[in-house]
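Duplicate of earlier report; E3 ubiquitin-protein ligase TRIM39-like input re-posted below.
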Amino acid sequence: MSLHRSFLSDEQFLCSICLDVFTNPSSTPCGHSFCMSCIGRYWDGAKVCQCPLCKKTYQKRPDLQINRTLREITEQFRSMRGGGGLERRRGGKGGGDGAITGNIFDNLKRKLPRPVTCEAQSPEDESTPALLASSVPNDSPITSGPPPPPPPHVSRSNGRRRFTVSGAASSQSLSVCDLHHRGTTIYCRTDRVCICPDCEAEQHQHHDTVSVEDEWTDTKSQLIVSAQEIQEMIRQRIKKIEEIRVSVTELEQAVERETAGSVRLFSWLLSAIERSQAELMEVMEMSRRAAEHQADATVRQLELEVEELRGREGALHELAQSDDPSHCVKAFAVLSGPPPSKNWSGVSVNSDLGTGIVYRSLAALVERFQEELRNVAEKGFPAAVQERSPVRTQPRMRKVQEYAVDVTLDPDTAHPRLILSDDMKSVKCGERHQLLPDNPERFDRVVCVLGRNAISSGRHYWEVEVGGKTDWDLGVARKSVNRKGKVDVTPVNGYWFLSLRNKNKYAFRTEPSTVVDLNLPPHKIGVFVDFDKGQVSFYNVEAKIHIYTFNDTFTERMFPFFSPCTNKSGKNETPLIITPVKT
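Output:
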């Protein structure tokens, strides 16, 4: 027994995994020993086998056998401790030194702080003390002295006893069952707790249990699947957010398209109705004047005949009172003949106002509007409307006339064939060139003249009489336009104007030209310029309707533009006349 006290300790016979005396010990190739069952469970499910103490790695799991020599020494050590060994430390009965050793362990356990219970431990077992796996000499005092320090493989953390499988550079730790003081290496899927082998045998016999490593392996695979599912859910929601944003953008574009299309459609209808109304008024006025003229002429003829008949009536009355039979006979022969009169029974004033053609034209326009309206209701407005610049409503005649300016012609810019009035308010084309200085401002090929009024900001309006002409051009031009040689009169080159050709062909000089169908030919044109908005608008002054508007960006000064065109051998000799604006 003295040899035992001097050289042997309990620590030398403890398994570092379960913290208990070896049961069927086996040794790894690196020389460390463990319980056969403990090392087997430790390696179960591991991809690479490692020694729990020195961390030596084995690519292939070693085929371990029971170390019979160590088992015999362990059994002898147990018998030297009293024949009970582990059983006595757990409360078994015996005598001699074995009882003393058991008492030593019991006293040491009483001195240790109460550990936290195992997850599988019931509340009734909370008073069960932990077992400290340390060696105490048999001659040490039983009831006095501080407890020996725990061995390196045992640690305490937050009052919970932890089993540490560590080498020189490892900090991995495993929980210890507070009921049986063994590592919780088993997971109960039924109760969802980690337990030790003894808990499995005592309280979880018919439960679904696996090793903690296997459960963690399965859990990791489930984590990967769950992470992928969450990533897919995130991707779907991000996609849905993008779809909603795209839908909102498309809705905004649809609103813009619908607004532009509806404004265009109804503006066209209103403009057509206004033109038809103005044309109707003019036709009725012309019909009234023609009827009045016809009535006046007829009345004058009838009055002449009445006057002649009254003269004959007077002559017959005088003849009836005459006393000269011879004279009466001769005179009556002349007076009794039929007077030179016209049969007026079929003559009447023409009551046809001539409005039928206007109504038929309007009916055709309304039918066209209805057809387009049906197309819009079925198909919606075309996307091309969306790409156009926003429709800007034009101000009414009464509004633009408030910006009237006194425009006069600039003789220094007039083509040599042009004849300007003394007040610089009218221009026409002569038969031959005049002897004028060829200054840089003068046009030498285009039969035109500019106004003196420079336009660099704000709003400006003027009116020009065009009645009786077959050809003309009216609008504005940039100051820097080319004035020598052939000129391409388009907005790109600095010209914005309305043209008349061959008495009834109206067009705007765009690329290509924009043909305008005017049912009511204008006798006076109103020109309105909004420099800041980049607009040049044209109006039929008598009909008080808007004809067309250029939308552009103006970057330099502009001037009114006038071209009476050539006189065409007298057919187009009527001048363009700048008239006062009457509001």
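The first strand starts at residue 25 and ends at 27.

Merging into the original ticket.
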